[in-house]
Structure to design on (299 residues):
Protein backbone atom coordinates (compact mmCIF):
# COMPACT_ATOMS: atom_id res chain seq x y z
CA UNK A 1 0.00 0.00 0.00
CA UNK A 2 1.33 3.41 -0.97
CA UNK A 3 1.83 6.10 1.60
CA UNK A 4 -0.71 8.45 0.07
CA UNK A 5 -3.29 5.64 0.10
CA UNK A 6 -2.58 5.02 3.77
CA UNK A 7 -3.10 8.71 4.55
CA UNK A 8 -6.35 8.71 2.58
CA UNK A 9 -7.56 5.66 4.47
CA UNK A 10 -6.83 7.39 7.77
CA UNK A 11 -8.94 10.36 6.74
CA UNK A 12 -11.83 8.06 5.74
CA UNK A 13 -11.87 6.69 9.27
CA UNK A 14 -11.80 10.18 10.71
CA UNK A 15 -8.17 9.91 11.83
CA UNK A 16 -6.27 13.08 11.15
CA UNK A 17 -2.55 12.54 10.58
CA UNK A 18 -0.26 14.62 12.76
CA UNK A 19 3.45 15.33 12.94
CA UNK A 20 4.08 11.94 14.54
CA UNK A 21 2.36 10.17 11.66
CA UNK A 22 4.40 11.99 9.03
CA UNK A 23 7.63 11.57 11.00
CA UNK A 24 7.09 7.81 11.25
CA UNK A 25 6.66 7.54 7.48
CA UNK A 26 9.66 9.79 6.89
CA UNK A 27 11.81 7.62 9.11
CA UNK A 28 10.83 4.51 7.17
CA UNK A 29 11.86 6.10 3.86
CA UNK A 30 15.07 7.48 5.38
CA UNK A 31 16.07 4.09 6.83
CA UNK A 32 15.50 2.56 3.40
CA UNK A 33 17.89 5.09 1.89
CA UNK A 34 15.17 6.75 -0.18
CA UNK A 35 15.80 10.37 0.71
CA UNK A 36 13.65 11.68 -2.13
CA UNK A 37 10.57 9.96 -0.68
CA UNK A 38 11.46 11.18 2.79
CA UNK A 39 11.75 14.73 1.51
CA UNK A 40 8.41 14.40 -0.32
CA UNK A 41 6.59 13.33 2.86
CA UNK A 42 8.12 16.27 4.70
CA UNK A 43 6.82 18.67 2.06
CA UNK A 44 3.37 17.03 2.19
CA UNK A 45 3.32 17.60 5.93
CA UNK A 46 4.09 21.30 5.48
CA UNK A 47 1.41 21.59 2.77
CA UNK A 48 -1.10 20.06 5.18
CA UNK A 49 -0.38 22.97 7.56
CA UNK A 50 1.26 20.62 10.06
CA UNK A 51 4.31 22.29 11.54
CA UNK A 52 7.37 20.01 11.70
CA UNK A 53 9.08 19.55 15.05
CA UNK A 54 12.71 18.91 15.92
CA UNK A 55 12.23 15.16 15.50
CA UNK A 56 10.96 15.54 11.92
CA UNK A 57 13.88 17.82 11.08
CA UNK A 58 16.35 15.36 12.61
CA UNK A 59 14.97 12.53 10.47
CA UNK A 60 15.29 14.60 7.31
CA UNK A 61 18.81 15.70 8.30
CA UNK A 62 19.77 12.06 8.86
CA UNK A 63 18.50 11.16 5.40
CA UNK A 64 20.49 13.96 3.79
CA UNK A 65 23.64 13.05 5.71
CA UNK A 66 23.38 9.38 4.74
CA UNK A 67 22.91 10.25 1.07
CA UNK A 68 25.93 12.56 0.98
CA UNK A 69 23.91 15.77 0.90
CA UNK A 70 25.35 17.45 3.98
CA UNK A 71 24.87 20.88 2.43
CA UNK A 72 21.09 20.33 2.40
CA UNK A 73 21.25 18.92 5.92
CA UNK A 74 22.99 22.03 7.24
CA UNK A 75 20.52 24.28 5.40
CA UNK A 76 17.78 22.81 7.60
CA UNK A 77 19.23 24.74 10.55
CA UNK A 78 18.15 27.94 8.81
CA UNK A 79 14.69 26.75 7.73
CA UNK A 80 13.93 25.55 11.26
CA UNK A 81 13.73 29.14 12.46
CA UNK A 82 10.62 29.69 10.29
CA UNK A 83 8.66 27.42 12.59
CA UNK A 84 10.37 28.47 15.79
CA UNK A 85 12.11 25.11 16.14
CA UNK A 86 15.36 25.27 18.09
CA UNK A 87 18.18 22.93 17.03
CA UNK A 88 19.56 20.49 19.56
CA UNK A 89 22.71 18.42 20.00
CA UNK A 90 21.20 15.50 18.06
CA UNK A 91 20.63 17.34 14.78
CA UNK A 92 24.00 19.12 15.03
CA UNK A 93 25.78 15.81 15.56
CA UNK A 94 23.83 14.25 12.68
CA UNK A 95 24.92 16.97 10.27
CA UNK A 96 28.51 16.80 11.56
CA UNK A 97 28.54 13.07 10.85
CA UNK A 98 27.55 13.85 7.26
CA UNK A 99 30.48 16.21 6.78
CA UNK A 100 32.84 13.69 8.40
CA UNK A 101 31.62 10.94 6.08
CA UNK A 102 32.32 13.23 3.11
CA UNK A 103 35.81 13.91 4.46
CA UNK A 104 35.16 17.63 4.90
CA UNK A 105 36.50 18.11 8.43
CA UNK A 106 36.71 21.89 8.03
CA UNK A 107 32.93 22.11 7.68
CA UNK A 108 32.47 19.59 10.49
CA UNK A 109 34.62 21.60 12.90
CA UNK A 110 32.96 24.84 11.81
CA UNK A 111 29.59 23.36 12.75
CA UNK A 112 31.06 22.09 16.03
CA UNK A 113 32.18 25.64 16.85
CA UNK A 114 28.75 26.97 15.90
CA UNK A 115 27.26 24.72 18.55
CA UNK A 116 29.19 26.60 21.22
CA UNK A 117 28.10 29.94 19.77
CA UNK A 118 24.40 29.07 19.99
CA UNK A 119 24.84 27.60 23.48
CA UNK A 120 24.57 23.89 22.70
CA UNK A 121 27.13 21.67 24.45
CA UNK A 122 28.57 18.78 22.42
CA UNK A 123 28.09 15.38 24.02
CA UNK A 124 30.05 12.14 23.90
CA UNK A 125 28.48 11.17 20.57
CA UNK A 126 29.50 14.50 19.03
CA UNK A 127 33.14 14.07 20.05
CA UNK A 128 33.28 10.44 18.96
CA UNK A 129 31.87 11.43 15.56
CA UNK A 130 34.57 14.07 15.10
CA UNK A 131 37.32 11.74 16.32
CA UNK A 132 36.12 9.10 13.84
CA UNK A 133 36.14 11.75 11.11
CA UNK A 134 39.74 12.69 11.84
CA UNK A 135 40.64 9.01 11.77
CA UNK A 136 39.07 8.65 8.32
CA UNK A 137 40.92 11.79 7.21
CA UNK A 138 44.25 10.33 8.45
CA UNK A 139 44.68 13.10 11.04
CA UNK A 140 45.19 11.17 14.29
CA UNK A 141 46.89 14.06 16.13
CA UNK A 142 43.72 16.07 15.63
CA UNK A 143 41.71 13.18 17.04
CA UNK A 144 43.93 13.09 20.12
CA UNK A 145 43.56 16.84 20.58
CA UNK A 146 39.80 16.35 20.70
CA UNK A 147 40.25 13.67 23.35
CA UNK A 148 42.02 16.21 25.54
CA UNK A 149 39.46 18.92 24.71
CA UNK A 150 36.49 16.82 25.75
CA UNK A 151 38.12 16.01 29.09
CA UNK A 152 38.70 19.72 29.67
CA UNK A 153 35.04 20.39 28.95
CA UNK A 154 33.89 17.74 31.41
CA UNK A 155 32.84 15.10 28.86
CA UNK A 156 34.17 11.77 30.13
CA UNK A 157 35.59 9.57 27.35
CA UNK A 158 34.63 5.92 27.28
CA UNK A 159 36.61 2.90 26.15
CA UNK A 160 35.12 3.29 22.68
CA UNK A 161 36.38 6.89 22.54
CA UNK A 162 39.96 5.91 23.33
CA UNK A 163 39.74 3.05 20.86
CA UNK A 164 38.73 5.48 18.11
CA UNK A 165 41.82 7.59 18.80
CA UNK A 166 44.03 4.49 18.76
CA UNK A 167 42.44 3.41 15.47
CA UNK A 168 43.19 6.86 14.06
CA UNK A 169 46.89 6.36 14.78
CA UNK A 170 46.78 2.86 13.31
CA UNK A 171 45.28 4.28 10.12
CA UNK A 172 48.64 5.89 9.32
CA UNK A 173 50.63 2.87 10.50
CA UNK A 174 51.72 4.36 13.83
CA UNK A 175 51.13 1.37 16.11
CA UNK A 176 53.48 2.74 18.77
CA UNK A 177 51.27 5.80 19.25
CA UNK A 178 48.17 3.61 19.25
CA UNK A 179 49.63 1.47 22.05
CA UNK A 180 50.56 4.61 23.97
CA UNK A 181 46.95 5.78 23.88
CA UNK A 182 45.62 2.39 24.96
CA UNK A 183 48.24 1.97 27.72
CA UNK A 184 47.42 5.38 29.16
CA UNK A 185 43.74 4.44 29.24
CA UNK A 186 44.47 1.18 31.08
CA UNK A 187 46.53 3.00 33.72
CA UNK A 188 43.67 5.45 34.32
CA UNK A 189 41.24 2.55 34.67
CA UNK A 190 43.46 0.93 37.31
CA UNK A 191 43.66 4.20 39.25
CA UNK A 192 39.88 4.57 39.06
CA UNK A 193 39.41 1.03 40.36
CA UNK A 194 41.81 1.68 43.26
CA UNK A 195 40.03 4.94 44.09
CA UNK A 196 36.63 3.21 44.03
CA UNK A 197 37.95 0.44 46.27
CA UNK A 198 39.29 2.91 48.83
CA UNK A 199 36.05 4.87 48.69
CA UNK A 200 34.02 1.74 49.40
CA UNK A 201 36.26 0.89 52.36
CA UNK A 202 35.78 4.32 53.92
CA UNK A 203 32.04 4.20 53.35
CA UNK A 204 31.88 0.77 55.02
CA UNK A 205 33.76 2.09 58.03
CA UNK A 206 31.41 5.06 58.31
CA UNK A 207 28.35 2.80 58.19
CA UNK A 208 29.74 0.58 60.95
CA UNK A 209 30.61 3.59 63.07
CA UNK A 210 27.14 5.09 62.60
CA UNK A 211 25.49 1.78 63.48
CA UNK A 212 27.46 1.43 66.71
CA UNK A 213 27.00 5.09 67.60
CA UNK A 214 23.24 4.99 67.39
CA UNK A 215 23.07 1.58 68.99
CA UNK A 216 24.91 2.74 72.10
CA UNK A 217 23.42 4.53 75.08
CA UNK A 218 23.92 8.32 75.34
CA UNK A 219 26.63 7.84 77.98
CA UNK A 220 28.61 5.53 75.72
CA UNK A 221 28.79 7.67 72.57
CA UNK A 222 32.23 7.74 71.02
CA UNK A 223 34.37 10.79 71.78
CA UNK A 224 37.76 11.22 70.20
CA UNK A 225 40.58 11.83 72.71
CA UNK A 226 42.86 14.83 72.54
CA UNK A 227 45.93 13.09 71.12
CA UNK A 228 45.89 10.12 68.79
CA UNK A 229 49.05 9.12 66.95
CA UNK A 230 48.65 6.41 64.28
CA UNK A 231 51.20 3.67 63.75
CA UNK A 232 51.15 0.69 61.45
CA UNK A 233 52.61 -2.78 61.70
CA UNK A 234 52.65 -5.44 58.99
CA UNK A 235 51.76 -8.95 60.16
CA UNK A 236 53.08 -12.23 58.85
CA UNK A 237 50.05 -12.78 56.60
CA UNK A 238 50.51 -9.45 54.83
CA UNK A 239 47.73 -7.53 56.57
CA UNK A 240 48.35 -4.11 58.08
CA UNK A 241 47.28 -3.49 61.67
CA UNK A 242 46.77 0.06 62.77
CA UNK A 243 47.88 0.94 66.29
CA UNK A 244 46.95 4.11 68.15
CA UNK A 245 48.87 5.60 71.06
CA UNK A 246 46.47 7.52 73.27
CA UNK A 247 47.31 10.25 75.76
CA UNK A 248 44.89 9.65 78.62
CA UNK A 249 43.52 12.77 80.22
CA UNK A 250 43.39 13.14 84.04
CA UNK A 251 39.63 13.43 84.19
CA UNK A 252 38.60 9.88 83.22
CA UNK A 253 36.48 8.35 85.95
CA UNK A 254 33.51 6.97 84.07
CA UNK A 255 33.41 3.72 82.22
CA UNK A 256 32.86 4.37 78.52
CA UNK A 257 32.94 2.41 75.32
CA UNK A 258 36.10 2.26 73.22
CA UNK A 259 36.19 1.66 69.49
CA UNK A 260 38.87 -0.26 67.63
CA UNK A 261 39.81 0.54 64.04
CA UNK A 262 41.19 -2.60 62.43
CA UNK A 263 42.64 -1.99 58.99
CA UNK A 264 43.61 -4.79 56.64
CA UNK A 265 44.82 -4.45 53.10
CA UNK A 266 41.25 -4.60 51.80
CA UNK A 267 38.79 -3.43 54.43
CA UNK A 268 38.18 -1.90 57.81
CA UNK A 269 36.50 -3.38 60.83
CA UNK A 270 35.24 -1.79 64.04
CA UNK A 271 34.72 -3.46 67.40
CA UNK A 272 33.48 -2.07 70.71
CA UNK A 273 35.46 -2.76 73.87
CA UNK A 274 34.52 -2.02 77.48
CA UNK A 275 37.36 -0.62 79.57
CA UNK A 276 37.16 -1.50 83.21
CA UNK A 277 37.17 1.11 85.96
CA UNK A 278 40.32 -0.43 87.41
CA UNK A 279 42.10 0.01 84.08
CA UNK A 280 41.08 3.65 83.89
CA UNK A 281 42.15 4.39 87.46
CA UNK A 282 45.57 2.87 86.82
CA UNK A 283 45.71 4.54 83.38
CA UNK A 284 46.53 1.20 81.88
CA UNK A 285 45.81 0.72 78.22
CA UNK A 286 46.29 -2.72 76.78
CA UNK A 287 48.22 -2.17 73.58
CA UNK A 288 47.04 -5.26 71.82
CA UNK A 289 43.95 -7.41 71.47
CA UNK A 290 44.50 -11.13 71.12
CA UNK A 291 42.63 -11.21 67.85
CA UNK A 292 43.94 -8.14 66.10
CA UNK A 293 46.63 -6.39 68.12
CA UNK A 294 45.03 -2.95 68.14
CA UNK A 295 45.32 -0.31 70.87
CA UNK A 296 42.05 0.86 72.45
CA UNK A 297 40.78 4.42 72.03
CA UNK A 298 39.67 5.55 75.44
CA UNK A 299 36.72 7.94 75.59
Amino acid sequence: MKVDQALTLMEEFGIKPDVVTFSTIMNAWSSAGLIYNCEEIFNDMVKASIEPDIHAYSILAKGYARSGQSQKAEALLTSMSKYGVQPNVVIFTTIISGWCAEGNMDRAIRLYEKMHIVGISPNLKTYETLIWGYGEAKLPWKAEELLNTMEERGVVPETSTVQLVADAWRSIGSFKEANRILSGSEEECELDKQFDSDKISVQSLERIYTKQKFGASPSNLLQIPDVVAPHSERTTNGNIRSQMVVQVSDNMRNITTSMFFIRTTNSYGVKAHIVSKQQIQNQVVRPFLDCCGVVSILC
About this structure: The radius of gyration is 33 Å. The chain is about 55% helix and 10% strand. Residues 3-193 form a domain with the Serine Threonine Protein Phosphatase 5, Tetratricopeptide repeat fold (CATH 1.25.40.10).
